Amino acid sequence: MSHFEQRLERDVRRIRDEVARLGEVLDGAVEASVRALAVRDRRLAYETILRDQGVNRRVKAIDKMCHSFVVRHMPSAGHLRFVSSVLRINIALERVGDYAVTICREAARLSRRPWGAIRRDMDLLVVEARASLGQSLKAFVSENADLARGTHETASVLGRSFDQVFSDLIEEGDRGNRPIADLFALLVVINRLSRICDQAKNICEETIFVATGEEKRGKKFRILFVDSTDSRWSQLARAMGRKAFEGRAVFASAGWSPASHLDSEFAAFMSEHGYDPGDSRPNRMEPTLSFLGDFDILIDLEGDLRERIEEVPYHCIVLSWRLEGVASLEEGYRRLTMSLSDLMGTLSGEAVA
């Protein structure tokens, strides 16, 4: 190895080590912020806030190291991917520090310690958030793309558990035995813990980019069409989505009182328009957080979905494409075509033909 190559690898190692050390500092900050919240330790909360100045200095130092690296080595290919990813990871880590500060500020405002189910929920979320962040940084330091992919998937699943915590907060608010300011403070804390998982996913994506050159893929949205029997419009919409936008979204359908089989008129119509009705099996719609939490977008085709669901998961979007009363199957088909094209264009940020 030449002297130039040795110096280049030494500088890469220094940057990677600094990122790892910053991650350790931030893990401690997150742990301290939640401990301050759990026991209402205002002194610890304020000390943690002040220590964030050190986090900011470390972030700036890494940023400076990256720019110096570019000037000194004029990197290309893998090394250029590395330094550009570190700059983005640096931003993610700075935000984690900001989340810890926010949790501390809310801890200082609480009138009482977190209680009961809320306390148990938060203890679990903290463990999950810290584990996701730690594993993502471990993957980056070792340039382990497989570990990054596994951690990204785990963090994505953990993100859905925040819906249950939000539901517990709503129930506590309905009881009316806690100050509303405390409930808002805990909602902010839950949001910041969720965002730590999001930043862990960002770090995993950058790790995969460094290790393989594979760029971040667009989000694949999970879309559910709902009607009364899941034997008519919902099945047609699902088939249309799968055929036109395969690979860009995941489409499913369900009905409140699912029929035993696909409506014969719709089966014939689908066949005439090039859709295979063979795999169309009506599914039951379950108005529960565990069922709905698997989807990003719920599309109501009859207009009563919102009234039938006691609670929509926090991350879900509900759209209404009411098709009752359309003049014909062709008219409904045209409306579905336009609505699907508009939705997918919005999600992708591109015009869809």
Describe this structure in words.
With about 350 residues, the protein is of the alpha/beta class. About 70% of the residues lie in helices and about 5% in strands. The protein contains 12 helices and 4 strands, in the order αααααααβαβααβαβα. The protein starts with a helix and ends in a 5-residue tail after the last helix. The mean pLDDT is about 90.
Q: What structural category do the secondary elements indicate? A: alpha/beta
The share of residues in extended strands comes to 5-15%
What's the number of domains?
2
Q: Evaluate the radius of gyration.
A: 25 Å
Number of strands: 4
Q: With helices defined by DSSP (H or I, 4 residues minimum), what is the helix count?
A: 12
> Which whole number gives the mean pLDDT?
89
Could you name the ranges where pLDDT drops below 50 across 5 or more consecutive residues? Answer: none
- Spatial sequence of strands, sheet with the most strands: 2-1-3-4
Based on the coordinates given, report the CATH architecture of the largest domain: Up-down Bundle
**N- and C-termini, Cα separation:** 54 Å
Shape: flat
Q: Any idea of the CATH class of the largest domain?
A: Mainly Alpha
CATH H-level name of the largest domain... which superfamily? Answer: Phosphate transport system protein phou homolog 2, domain 2
